[in-house]
């Protein structure tokens, strides 16, 4: 089964003309400056704020911002939180900021904290999965990538290779994955679109090559009181992947060049919130991300102490 997409010729990968047509169809729908930069600036009295890069897309500039624990100590384990790798996944960004406001100093004597709330600001403003060049940042965490967002984050984290204990990457799975983003991906790559099923609820993605089932379980248990956990489909899968355990799937994240694999941290996970469910709200989605981050840090610290 396949469907058409309004840009491109079925069966033919996009060239620059098609990418330009896609780009021209994207419209700014919200403000990175107001919704991300301003809240980060409000946290500058409590955390060290770093501009680790700057994007310039067709004359529009975006600062790439990270926040570090004040009083960073090299002997402490490092906890990494990333959000907004896909700009349209709102609770990844807002959940990271809420975590910083409410709990960012809870482990100040036990761990270093590095938070990158919005990896893809152009995508955030356009509620878009891809970047300006129609590239998915979350398939581009490798040396020599052409995705500027991914390259900048790789450079920021290069000095921390081997020193990150835990990395949690905050994402969402939305109805538009099926209605827009997967059809666009098929069209861009000249492949047929194969419909899938969007899971109703929160789930996690573990690394099948370095699984940490106890860590994943702890995060699921922390999130369950906040929002419902996704159940498998009729085939026993979530997004075509078999369950590792309740609410958890796994695949080789490093082979797909996903953000969660970039540091080689011992404990890694990718959260997937479902904001389109009638059973949840934007506030609950943000709170679910906060609960996940707190549980992830708590488990990682308990494992080394």
Automatic annotation (TrEMBL):
InterPro entries named in the record: DUF2817, Peptidase_M14
Domain Peptidase M14 stretches: 28-305
Superkingdom of origin: Bacteria
UniProt-listed Pfam families: DUF2817
UniProt record similarity statement: Belongs to the peptidase M14 family.
Name this protein carries in UniProt: M14 family metallocarboxypeptidase
Organismal lineage: Bacteria, Pseudomonadati, Pseudomonadota, Betaproteobacteria, Burkholderiales
């Amino acid at each position: 089964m396949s469907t058409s997409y309004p840009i491109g010729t079925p069966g033919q990968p996009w060239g620059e003309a098609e990418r330009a047509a896609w780009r021209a169809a994207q419209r700014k729908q919200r403000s990175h400056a107001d919704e991300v930069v301003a809240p980060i600036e409000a946290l500058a009295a409590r955390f060290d704020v770093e501009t680790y890069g700057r994007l310039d897309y067709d004359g529009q500039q975006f600062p790439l911002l990270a926040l570090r624990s004040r009083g960073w100590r090299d002997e402490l384990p490092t906890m990494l939180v990333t959000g907004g790798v896909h700009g349209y996944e709102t609770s990844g960004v807002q959940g990271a900021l809420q975590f910083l406001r409410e709990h960012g100093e809870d482990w100040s004597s036990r761990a270093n904290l590095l938070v990158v709330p919005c990896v893809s600001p152009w995508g955030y403003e356009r509620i878009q999965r891809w970047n300006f060049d129609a590239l998915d940042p979350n398939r581009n965490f490798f040396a020599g990538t052409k995705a500027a967002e991914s390259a900048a984050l790789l450079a920021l984290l290069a000095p921390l290779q081997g020193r990150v204990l835990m990395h949690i990457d905050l994402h969402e799975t939305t109805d538009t994955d099926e209605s827009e983003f997967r059809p666009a991906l098929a069209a861009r790559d000249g492949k047929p679109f194969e419909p899938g099923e969007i899971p109703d609820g929160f789930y996690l993605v573990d690394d099948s090559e370095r699984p940490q089932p106890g860590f994943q379980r702890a995060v699921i248990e922390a999130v369950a009181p906040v929002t419902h956990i996704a159940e498998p489909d009729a085939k026993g899968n979530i997004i075509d992947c078999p369950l590792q355990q309740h609410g958890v799937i796994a695949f080789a994240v490093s082979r797909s060049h996903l953000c969660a694999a970039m540091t080689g941290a011992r404990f890694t996970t990718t959260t997937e919130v479902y904001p389109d469910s009638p059973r949840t709200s934007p506030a609950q989605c943000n709170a679910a991300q906060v609960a996940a981050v707190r549980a992830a840090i708590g488990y990682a610290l308990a494992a080394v102490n």
